[in-house]
Design a protein that fits this description.
By secondary structure, the chain is an alpha/beta fold. It contains 16 helices and 22 strands. The strands form six sheets. Strands 15-16-17-14-13-19-20 form a seven-stranded mixed β-sheet, with helices on both faces. Strands 10-9-8-11-12 form a five-stranded parallel β-sheet, with helices on both faces. Strand 16, helix 13 and strand 17 form a beta-alpha-beta unit. It starts with a strand and ends with a strand. The relative contact order is 0.14. The protein binds nicotinamide-adenine-dinucleotide (NAD). Nicotinamide-adenine-dinucleotide binds next to helix 8 and helix 9.
Length: about 475
C-alpha cells in the first residue's frame, strides 16, 4: 500500500491544506493499492507561489546546469526503472510485457535528448539590427491523463526544465502514484526548491485553479477534448499560453496493394495495446471493399489470438481498463454500435472466461461500420476497432479526414512512394507508414480538435520558450 500523505511543494513534502485522500485502485484486482492527498485551491496557491519565487533564479542558470539536472534525473529513473514500471502496472493495469519498455524506457530516452537540446536556449539569432534570444516562458502548470502517465509527464517536464521554466504538476486521479515516485527522484537529485511542485486532486478543483491562476504563465494540458476546452476557457481571462494535447479517432488506411495480412495484424495490435487506451490508437481501419471479407477474417483471427488477462503474467498482451468507469463507457459504446447497425464480430464482453474480477473488456471488432456512426466519430478509449470499407483511394482519404479529430493516422501500402503519397493527404499530426515506430525526437501533437501543441524534440522545447527581439 503506497500511502502518500503530503504534497511536494517548494522542495519539501508538505501537509496539504485540502482535506481527505483519493484512493488508487489496481484495475486488475479491484483492490486499493494506494492513496494521495486531495489538494485544493490553497495548495495550488502555495505551489504556484513557490514556482514563481524559484523562477528568476532557475531561468537564469546556465543551460549546462539545467542539462546536468536532466542527466541526474535520467540516472535516477534508470536506476529505479523496475520500481516505476511496477507502480504503473499496478495503477494502470498495463501488462508487464509492455510496461517497462513503453511506459518507462521510452520516456527515459525522451528525457535524455533534452540534455543536448537545453543548449539551444543559448542560441542568438541576428536579424538585421536585432538580436533574437530565447527565454523561458515562466511558471507552467501541467495537467495530465492516466493512460501513459510518465510519458505525458516527461513530455512536458523535460523541455520545461531545459528551457528554464518552473512547474506545478497535477496528475490524474486514477494514476497519481508514478508522479509521487518521480517527485522522490526530483528530491534526490537536489533540484532547487520550487522548480518542481506536485499537487494531486480533482480536475475540477486543482486543475481549474491552475488553469485560472493569474500567476501561471502557461498551462500544458493532456486529456479529453471536453476538459481541454474547459481549461482553455478558464485560462483565457489571464491570456496565458495554453498547450492542448487532446483526443483522437485515428484512421489506418490500408491500400489495395498492401500486404493485407501484415497490415491487418499490425492494425489490430496497435489498437489493443494498453487495452485501446492510447490517444493515437488507429481505431478506424479503412479497407478496400474488394478485400474487405478477407480482412475481416484476418482481423478476427488476430483479435482472438491476443491474450487478455492478468497484467503480471508475461504472456498477457492486454490487461483491464484503467477503471470501472472506463469499462462502463466502453461497454456502453459496444451497445451503441450494435444499435447503430454495426456488426459485432469479436469481443464486446466484459470479464474473459477464467477471471472473476478486474475491469476487463475483450478485444472488440465491429464490421460494416459507416464512418458517420457514433462509434466511428467519437473516441471510445477502449479495445474497440471499427472496420470500414472504401470504394477507391479518393474515398479512403475522404473517410480518413472525415473526423473532428486529427491526432494520428497510419498508411499501409505496397511501396513507400505510394504510402507517402497517401500520408501527405491525411490531416493529422502523425502518420505511421507501414508500421513505422514512435520517434521521441520528432514533434508530436494534433490537428483540429486533437489539440494545438507539439511535444518532444526541438518543437517540444519551443512550447516553453518566449522569443525576445533586442534592437541594437
Ligand atoms: P480527462 O480529460 O478526463 O482528464 C485529464 C486531466 O484533466 C486529469 O488530470 C483530470 O483530473 C483533469 N481535468 C478534468 N477536468 C478538468 C477541468 N475542468 N479543469 C482542469 N483539469 C481537469 O482525460 P483522461 O480520461 O484522464 O484521459 C484520456 C483522454 O486523454 C483521452 O481523450 C485521450 O485521447 C487523451 N490523451 C491525449 C493525448 C495526446 O497527447 N493528445 C495523450 C494521452 C491521452
Amino acid at each position: 500500500m503506497l500511502k502518500h500523505t503530503a504534497l511536494f511543494i517548494d522542495g519539501a513534502w508538505q501537509r496539504p491544506c485540502g482535506e481527505g485522500f483519493a484512493q488508487v485502485f489496481n484495475p486488475a484486482t479491484e483492490q486499493v493499492i494506494g492513496q494521495v492527498p486531495l489538494g485544493d485551491e490553497r495548495d495550488v496557491d502555495r505551489a504556484v507561489a513557490a514556482a514563481r519565487k524559484a523562477f528568476a533564479g532557475w531561468s537564469r542558470t546556465p543551460s549546462s546546469v539545467r542539462a546536468g539536472f536532466i542527466r541526474d534525473l535520467v540516472e535516477q529513473l534508470t536506476a529505479r526503472a523496475d520500481e516505476m514500471a511496477s507502480v504503473i502496472t499496478a495503477e494502470l493495469g498495463m501488462p508487464v510485457q509492455w510496461c517497462r519498455s513503453v511506459q518507462v524506457e521510452g520516456p527515459i530516452a525522451g528525457l535524455a535528448q533534452y540534455i543536448e537540446i537545453a543548449g539551444l536556449m543559448d542560441q542568438v539569432r541576428q536579424v538585421g539590427n536585432s538580436q533574437v534570444v530565447r527565454e523561458a516562458v515562466g511558471v507552467c502548470a501541467f495537467i495530465n491523463p492516466w493512460n501513459y502517465p510518465l510519458h505525458q509527464l516527461i513530455g512536458k517536464l523535460a523541455p520545461a526544465l531545459a528551457a528554464g521554466c518552473t512547474v506545478v504538476v497535477k496528475p490524474s486521479q486514477e494514476t497519481p502514484l508514478h508522479a509521487f515516485l518521480l517527485a522522490q527522484m526530483i528530491e534526490a537529485i537536489g533540484l532547487p526548491a520550487g522548480v518542481f511542485n506536485l499537487v494531486s486532486g480533482p480536475g475540477a478543483k486543482v486543475g481549474e485553479a491552475l488553469a485560472r491562476h493569474p500567476d501561471v504563465d502557461m498551462v500544458s494540458f493532456t486529456g479529453s477534448t471536453g476538459a481541454g476546452v474547459r481549461v482553455a476557457q478558464a485560462a483565457a481571462p489571464s491570456v496565458k499560453r495554453v498547450c492542448l494535447e487532446l483526443g483522437g479517432k485515428s484512421p489506418l488506411l490500408i491500400a489495395e496493394d498492401a500486404d493485407l495480412a501484415g497490415a491487418v495484424r499490425h492494425g489490430v495490435q496497435d489498437v489493443m495495446i494498453n487495452s485501446g487506451q492510447t490517444c493515437t490508437a488507429l481505431t478506424r481501419m479503412l479497407l478496400p471493399a474488394s478485400r474487405y471479407a478477407e480482412a475481416l477474417e484476418l482481423a478476427r483471427a488476430e483479435a482472438q489470438n491476443l491474450v487478455l488477462g492478468d497484467p503480471l503474467d508475461p504472456a498477457t498482451f492486454l490487461g483491464p481498463m484503467c477503471s470501472a468507469g472506463q469499462r462502463r463507457t466502453v461497454l456502453d459504446y459496444v451497445r451503441v454500435g450494435q444499435e447503430e447497425g454495426a456488426r459485432l464480430i469479436a469481443g464486446g464482453t466484459a470479464l474473459p472466461s477464467g477471471l472473476d474480477k478486474g475491469f476487463y473488456v475483450a478485444p472488440t471488432l465491429f464490421a460494416d461500420v459507416d464512418n458517420r456512426m457514433r462509434i466511428a466519430q467519437e473516441e471510445i478509449f477502449g479495445p474497440v476497432l471499427c472496420l470500414i470499407p472504401y470504394r477507391d483511394e479518393a474515398h479512403a482519404v475522404e473517410l480518413a479526414n472525415a473526423s473532428p479529430f486529427g491526432l494520428s493516422s497510419g498508411v499501409w501500402a505496397g511501396t513507400t512512394e505510394h504510402a507517402l503519397h497517401l500520408a501527405r493527404q491525411l490531416r493529422a499530426g502523425q502518420c505511421f507508414v507501414n508500421g513505422g515506430a514512435f520517434n521521441y525526437h520528432a514533434p508530436f501533437g494534433g490537428y483540429k480538435q486533437s489539440g494545438n501543441g507539439r511535444e518532444w524534440g526541438e518543437e517540444g522545447l519551443a512550447e516553453f520558450v518566449e522569443t525576445k527581439a533586442i534592437q541594437l
